[in-house]
Amino acid sequence: MRTLYLGGRGIDMYLLYNHVQPKIDALSPDNKLIIGGGLLNGIPCLGSGRCDIAAKSPLTGAVGDSNVGGFFAPELRLAGFDHLVISGKAEKPVYLWVNDGEITVEDASHLWGQDTFEAQTTIRKDRNDDDIKSIVIGVAGENLVRFANVRTGMKNSAGRTGMGAVMGSKNLKAIAARGTTSIEFAHPDELLDYCKEMNDMIIGTRWAKAQSKWGTMIIYSNTNTTGLIRTKNFQLNRLEQGEDLEPEVIDRYSFGTSGCYGCVVHCRHRYTMKDGDDEPIFGEGPEYTSLGAFGTMVNCTKMDTVLKANHLVNKYGIDTLETGGLIAWAMELYEKGILTQAETDGLKLEWGDENVVFELIRKIALREGFGKVLADGFKPASAKIGKGSEYYAIQVKGMSNLHSDERPTPSFALGIATSTRGSDHLRSRPAIDLYGLPEDLLEEIYEGPVTSDSTVYEGKPRMIWWQERLYAVTDSIGTCKFQTVFCAVHAPKWNEFSKLIHLATGMEFSKPQLMEIGERIYTLERLFNLREGFSRKDDALSERYFKEPTPIGLPSAKGKTIDKERFEEMLDEYYALHKWDRNGVPTKEALERLGLDKEPSHML
Amino acid sequence: MKHGEDETMDKILFIDPEKCTGCRLCETACSLHHEKVVNPSLSRIHVAKWETAGLYIPVVCVQCESPICQTVCPVKAISRDEKTGAVVIDSNVCVGCRLCALYCPFAGVQIDLKKGRVLKCDLCGGSPECAKFCDPQALQYVKATTANMMKQRAAAQKFSELMKKMLVSP
Predict the structure, then answer these.
(1) Could you state, in order of their start, the residue ranges of all structural domains in chain A?
(2) Share of chain A above pLDDT 90, in %
(3) CA of B37 to nearest chain A CA: how many angstroms apart?
(4) Separation between Cα atoms, residue A588 and residue A301, nearest integer Å
(5) How far is it, in rounded angstroms, from Cα A229 to Cα A222?
(6) pLDDT for residue B3
């Protein structure tokens, strides 16, 4: 199994494809919740604490999958487990206690209703151990909000695709782990030295240095200047008077940064803020994503708004991006008269009103009034609202796009359209496409003809195909995407992964073998989606990408649409690279080559 | 005691909790170096965390000049390594009574019941792995004079910030 799928996301996907029967209701006891530690969890480099959580997604009906940092996965491993498959449904709220080789089911009735911070603290208090690491759901997960997150620590969220709702549907409030067993390695001394080298390699990149100071907020400075950032849902591509969202502003609130397990980048801030007469808030973050979700997308121009909203979504346990995307959409519908106060519980959904944002977050998490409509995600909500509201929904396969504006960047557009878990930048985004790097350097990385100009269509499918495989392997060894070729060019990739795997496990993988594993995982995800009825028609973008040109920005970003014909050509080329047919179905030869022709082999 | 000529004797493991990001690379590297496995419960260093307040404090032996552990050890198993200045436990002499762990006010000694022993920092023989892995420099292995200077400069900076605040709003 490890030679075919490594661990983490790879093995999770195998388990998902083999354990989940086709066309089941994702919120029924038939769905499986799969928790997977990465192959390299625990090593002292590359943020090796990543955990992969999978199930059929209740938001999209496609692959549900979320990769989360923090400290849970190493603790699960220290407690003696790599993968958990949870099926059925508990009669009353429970949590799982995983401790040194044993798993017990514990009563969680006193945790039900607690927010994601309280629940973790309560478990620690109950068991009198501050080093317990838990993954938990908040009230949103209990209420089956279809984009509820699974959370761990103050900051880490297993976001997108609604894994928190699947947990909630099983009456499972938390999984708590504590372990004192050892993680053993094939070559411990060489591993220690090589991990040190990896950390130096990472922190030696300019990207990691910038990120260790500002976090992903650093991206905002670039994208908002260029005009690559969705504003007022999809109406503008730059936030005017957006100075208060610049990363430096976090200095007003931050007292230091915080890192996940085994990470030298420490990309998030520990911040405090005073919230009226209430107790001061302590939170971690925010990500670039939240600057968009509760800043540009809803036309709010204050860091205060972003930080408070970030804290709220984390407390309730809902996806920051999906929530912001839905609120921005509702605001545009209100502006267009498609929604009125009659449907919104009397709320005036006006741009830039932070109180509306806070109130809608609450209503979504509690499934209250108009929040109940949004809590099911774009597709059910637009079906319910009707009146052409679907046109304004910026989503793929029912999942919200990031607030980045992909109209000027065909590579990014292709990536979100084809991602196996619905609109997503973490499946395949070739972020370095924005850097205008020399073509020969890019061709060396991507191993074939690609282009340096981020506004053209040529060569982009190859970039997506390469990144898909790299990220699939990264998610499977359990290290952080920020510590491979995502935003940093000179970061560890295939050969470094190969050496780390060898030193840690003794297993040998050549670069082509690792790339093939990436291909196998991605193809298996594709098979899952095909089995659920998805096809080429779903590898699509909202119509607005083709019809409405970007109104502002620098010359590389202004006046851009995605050309429909050329988009379809990219799709053809992308399928061909994968050896999939014109409908996006893997050919028999491709499946045989990857050893997938007999899957599912153990349908349970 | 008098420090020797060897330059590692002039160095201390300097801890600055304000710089700690809580990543636990120190714990991981420590157990991998000493035990050849990753197991924080066998690390000589531990990051104590108050997660909901964002407070992280590395806890490790501070290599006292007059070590309490040495005083209470009934079999004289604890001595100072003349090369590194580390207070070390001779496992051949130690009887595993754990008095050192009980009396240390800094939690510098850990109990390993599985193997019936106590664990403490030996500064990795003069090249502590934890400090090598701590990029934010919450842990630094530096000369005592350098550590003094760093503390002084940090204090001076805080003082200057305080002065600025007082000048703006007296």
Answers:
(1) 2-178, 208-394, 410-594
(2) 98
(3) 5
(4) 52
(5) 10
(6) 46
Please determine, looking at this structure, whether the domain spanning A208-394 carries the CATH number 1.10.569.10.
Answer: yes
A154 and B22 in contact by Cβ < 8 A? Answer: no
| Inter-chain touch B54–A42, beta carbons under 8 Å | no
Return the CATH class of domain A2-178.
alpha beta
pLDDT in tens, A297-341: 999 999 999 999 999 999 999 999 999 999 999 999 999 999 999
**Third-level CATH fold of B7-145:** Alpha-Beta Plaits (3.30.70)
Decide if B38 and A43 are in contact by the 8 Å CB cutoff: yes
Using CA atoms, how far residue A238 sits from A224, A405, A462, B17, in Å, is 5, 9, 29, 40
- Chain A contact set for B135 (CB, 8 A): 199, 203, 212, 264
Nearest C-alpha neighbor of A162 from the set A399, A324, A361: A399
State the architecture of A410-594 in CATH terms.
Orthogonal Bundle (1.10)
Mean pLDDT, residues A331-359? 98
Which residues lie closer than 8 Å to A186 by C-beta, 6 or more apart? A502, A503, A504, A505, A506
Task: Give how far A248 is from chain B: nearest CA, Å.
Answer: 18
How close, in Å, is residue A181 to chain B by CA atoms?
Answer: 7
Q: Distance from A585 to chain B by nearest Cα, in Å? A: 43
Question: pTM of the prediction?
Answer: 0.96
pLDDT of residue B8: 67
**pLDDT-based confidence at B71, cuts 50/70/90?**
very high
Instruction: Among B21, B24, B37, select the one facing A183 at the smallest CB separation.
Output: B37
Select the residue of A42, A256, A284 nearest B18 (Cβ to Cβ): A256
The answer, for B21 touching chain A at a CB cutoff of 8 Å, is: yes
Examine the predicted complex and report whether its ipTM is higher than 0.90.
Answer: yes
Any idea where the domains of chain B sit in the sequence? 7-145
β-pairing, B139-143 vs B11-15, is: antiparallel
Asked if the model's pLDDT at residue B6 lies above 60, the reply is no
To the nearest whole number, what is the mean pLDDT of chain A?
97
